């Protein structure tokens, strides 16, 4: 084979070259000095084949040219004067054979060079992949899924295609499947994640890392059966020491079936993120209760006020009723009218109590069709005392007819209470000449817009960026959770809430909510 790179000739190279020269010299001698009439010069091709084992392209061309010259010299020396047609034919055959051998050897050499180049590129790419695999901080495994895939496809052929529910009904199935996966390689980050020392412990305790009840692995099995090329999901894993961790799992399944013996599985540890998310959700839940408690505080004040009136009326009517009965003869008709008034007032009192109990209960509340203007009025009534205490007046501006909306009334009321409380506090802190909260109702692009605007100092740039971030507060006794809860509440209703500054000063919070559809 022709050598690709220039090197000092080795022992075998010299042998090949020597043999080539020997054969060529023999052919030349026989061709030139004997009377043999055969196409002996064809044998130069063999000499060329031998030479090709030890020379490069240029060397090959040199030998080819040399053998050509030798054949021609022999021909000139022996036959030139009396050459006949068969002699020319023999020379032609020899030259064609030499030419073809040269062309084939050169082509072969080019193909081999290309193959070597591809191999070198492959080796480089493999080295690059290895270095990424080993050094990345993402935990990576190469796992042999071929046995598992064959098993799953065989099950699917038997009609078991819903692998997830099959795994749920057969608890041992998942373990059985994990046992079919071999770990081919894993990187340092993978060992750090699982707390293992080497790949043998990974293989030994394969099923140990997947806690019972986690159905992510069943989803992976389903993805294989469905022929998906990619899987991503959150899972819980158990480390070697028994610690539970949350991970983001991603698996690329090859399109080539043969490559299932080296499937790359990646995991990112999201335990801290997950814990923070859960803590935040718990804090929000707790604080949403606190907000409700604050609402109830305001509510109790108004409750006392509202109950006062029917209770007083009941007392007055009871006295009147006694008087009608004390008459001689008793005025039964008048007494009956008083009793009816007592009944009416007591039922009003019980209605007030019922709605308060609803506020206090933890029962899931149902959305209802709410007229916003009425909700605003009711909320202002609730906050009457706070508004009066800070000497803040409220202007409600309704720009056009507002369609009703379908929401959980109490939740939207809590958002309003929060916005109005913030506005009152902002006005109290700023001590402006005008102490007004303006609530504007309007419709914008099929959405209902409710704007709460105050005459406080407004929002500075830093506050605007963080307004809805949980625990952001600029108040010494603030919790910084009201706006964050308000945003999640409004977004759950399919709406949005944004804070900005009014051109005339003061903060402005706009809620946009989808209106109740006419055809709904
Ligand atoms: P808290 O009222 O407990 O601070 P919020 O989430 O309701 O929590 O508000 C977060 C922050 O947003 C407040 O501390 C304040 O800096 C700012 N903010 C909210 N409403 C207004 C307003 N109307 N004017 C000025 N700043 C406001």
From TrEMBL:
Its EC number is 2.7.13.3. SUPFAM superfamilies: ATPase domain of HSP90 chaperone/DNA topoisomerase II/histidine kinase, Homodimeric domain of signal transducing histidine kinase, PYP-like sensor domain (PAS domain). It comes from the Bacteria. The chain crosses the membrane at residues 12-30, 36-55, 62-81. InterPro entries: HATPase_C_sf (IPR036890), HATPase_dom (IPR003594), His_kinase_dom (IPR005467), HisK_dim/P_dom (IPR003661), HisK_dim/P_sf (IPR036097), PAS-like_dom_sf (IPR035965), Sig_transdc_His_kin-like_C (IPR004358). Residues 302-517 form the Histidine kinase domain. One of its GO terms (molecular function) is ATP binding. It catalyses: ATP + protein L-histidine = ADP + protein N-phospho-L-histidine. Keywords: ATP-binding, Kinase, Membrane, Nucleotide-binding, Phosphoprotein, Transferase, Transmembrane, Transmembrane helix, Two-component regulatory system. It is an enzyme of class 2 (transferase). SMART domains: HATPase_c, HisKA. CDD domains: HisKA (cd00082). This is histidine kinase. It comes from Martelella mediterranea DSM 17316.
């Amino acid at each position: 084979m022709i050598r690709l790179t220039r090197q000092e000739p080795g022992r075998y190279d010299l042998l090949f070259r020597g043999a080539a020269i020997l054969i060529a010299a023999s052919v030349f001698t026989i061709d030139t000095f004997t009377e043999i009439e055969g196409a002996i010069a064809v044998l130069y091709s063999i000499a060329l084949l031998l030479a090709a084992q030890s020379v490069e392209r240029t060397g090959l061309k040199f030998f080819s040219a040399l053998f050509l010259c030798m054949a021609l010299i022999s021909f000139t020396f022996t036959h030139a004067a009396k050459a006949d047609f068969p002699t020319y034919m023999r020379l032609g055959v020899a030259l064609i054979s030499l030419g073809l051998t040269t062309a084939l050897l050169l082509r072969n050499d080019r193909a081999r060079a290309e193959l070597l180049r591809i191999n070198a590129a492959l080796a480089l790419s493999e080295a690059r992949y290895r270095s990424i695999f080993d050094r990345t901080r993402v935990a990576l495994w190469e796992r042999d899924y071929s046995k598992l895939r064959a098993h799953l496809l065989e099950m699917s052929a038997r009609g078991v295609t819903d692998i997830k529910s099959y795994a749920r009904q057969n608890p041992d199935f998942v373990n059985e499947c994990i046992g079919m996966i071999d770990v081919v390689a894993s990187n340092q980050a993978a060992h750090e994640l699982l707390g293992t020392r080497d790949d043998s412990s990974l293989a030994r305790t394969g099923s140990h890392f997947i806690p019972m009840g986690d159905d992510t692995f069943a989803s992976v099995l389903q993805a294989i059966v469905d022929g998906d090329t990619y899987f991503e999901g959150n899972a819980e894993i158990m480390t070697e020491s028994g610690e539970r961790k949350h991970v983001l799992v991603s698996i690329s399944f090859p399109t080539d079936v043969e490559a299932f013996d080296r499937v790359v599985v990646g995991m990112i540890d999201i335990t801290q993120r997950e814990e923070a998310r859960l803590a935040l959700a718990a804090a929000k839940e707790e604080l949403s209760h606190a907000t409700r408690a604050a609402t109830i505080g305001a509510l109790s004040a108004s409750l006392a006020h509202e109950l006062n009136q029917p209770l007083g009326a009941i007392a007055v009517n009871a006295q009147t009723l006694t008087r009608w009965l004390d008459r001689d003869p008793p005025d039964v008709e008048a007494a009956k009218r008083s009793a009816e008034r007592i009944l009416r007032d007591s039922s009003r009192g019980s209605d007030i109590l019922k709605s308060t109990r609803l506020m206090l209960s933890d029962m899931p509340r149902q959305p209802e069709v709410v007229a916003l203007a009425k909700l605003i009025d009711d909320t202002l009534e609730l906050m009457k005392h706070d508004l009066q205490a800070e000497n803040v007046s409220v202007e409600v501006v309704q720009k056009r007819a507002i369609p009703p909306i379908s929401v959980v009334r109490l939740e939207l009321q809590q958002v309003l209470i929060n916005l109005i409380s913030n506005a009152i506090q902002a006005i109290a802190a700023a001590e402006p000449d005008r102490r007004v909260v303006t609530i504007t109702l309007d419709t914008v692009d099929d959405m209902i817009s409710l704007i709460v605007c105050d005459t406080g100092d407004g929002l500075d740039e830093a506050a605007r960026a963080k307004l809805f971030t949980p625990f952001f507060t600029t108040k010494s006794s603030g919790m910084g959770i009201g706006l964050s809860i308000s945003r999640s509440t409004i977004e759950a209703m399919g709406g949005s809430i944004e804070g900005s500054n009014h051109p005339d000063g003061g903060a402005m919070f706009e809620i946009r909510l989808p209106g109740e559809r006419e055809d709904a």
